[in-house]
Amino acid sequence: MYLNFGEIGTNIKNLMEDFQKKKPKEQQKLESISDMKAFVENYPQFKKMSGAVSKHVTVVGELSRLVSERHLMEVSEVEQELSCQNDHSNALQNVKRLLQNQRLAELDAVRLVMLYALHYERHSNNALQSLLADLRSRGVSEKYRRLVSAVLEFGGKRVRDSDLFSPKDAVAITKQFFKGLKGVENVYTQHQPLLLETLDKLIKGKLRDNTYPYVGPNTLRDRPQDIIVFIVGGATYEEALTVYNLNRTTPGVRIILGGTAIHNTKSFLEEVQTAGFHSRHT
């Protein structure tokens, strides 16, 4: 449930290998009543395992097709760099390169430009207008192009209390390689949602009162044990993964995550649009 695509692929490969070991030999000889009895007794278990393997391989096969068709490994890598590194020149070059790929889905292309816009909003060499022109030239709908400025109004630096982008030391950035399965390449796992930092500070008693006011004693003397996080506007699967990992690695602390929705890019942009944020013509 909480594994990334590469790890799931490796697990399916192991499941398949285990299945092949248990598969009855095609040339199995049924020379006696006991041979036939053993075959009949083992067949339901084999059939059940066969069905499970078939379902998993079918699902992962479809995921693999979508990842390949939409170039999601390449898109994901650039998204991670936009979120976690602070190299404007390299970021702009990579986004422009991907926007030239006509096989990129419209939503993926727009999301790259939105991440660039949010991160480098006030950079002296900001090239957002050039990227919007690239979106227009590749035929991205006006609805999505207009949403780039809407997202900036919704979550730009002017309205943020904290920085969403915390560049990491290049030495700390590692690619995870999953060997032995073709089509499942290395993936970036750099990005951690802001929720991780917020919960870490809360658990350590370092959360700023002016940003997160509370009712009760002037100081929180005891370490919190039960924490309920509710995100008005919606949470994401990555935030659910963050809470799962914190529960698993922080003894004595129990965290529950809730929200008004579980968001992906499409549902989030629909909410921004519904909220009436201004989107300039692009």
Descriptive account of the structure:
Belongs to the STXBP/unc-18/SEC1 family. Keywords: Protein transport, Transport. Pfam families: Sec1. InterPro entries: Sec-1-like_dom3a, Sec1-like, Sec1-like_dom2, Sec1-like_sf. With 282 residues, this protein is mainly alpha-helical. Among the domains are: 5-69; 192-282, 3-Layer(aba) Sandwich (Rossmann fold), CATH 3.40.50. The protein has helices at 5-22, 33-69, 72-84, 88-99, 106-119, 128-137, 142-155, 194-203, 237-249, 265-274, and strands at 175-176, 187-188, 226-231, 235-236, 254-259, 262-263. It has a two-stranded antiparallel ribbon.
Please specify the SSE layout and strand pairing.
Layout: H1 5-22, H2 33-69, H3 72-84, H4 88-99, H5 106-119, H6 128-137, H7 142-155, E1 175-176, E2 187-188, H8 194-203, E3 226-231, E4 235-236, H9 237-249, E5 254-259, E6 262-263, H10 265-274
Helix pairs in contact: 1-2, 3-4, 3-5, 4-5, 5-6, 5-7
Keywords: Protein transport, Transport
Pfam family, one: Sec1
Family: Belongs to the STXBP/unc-18/SEC1 family.
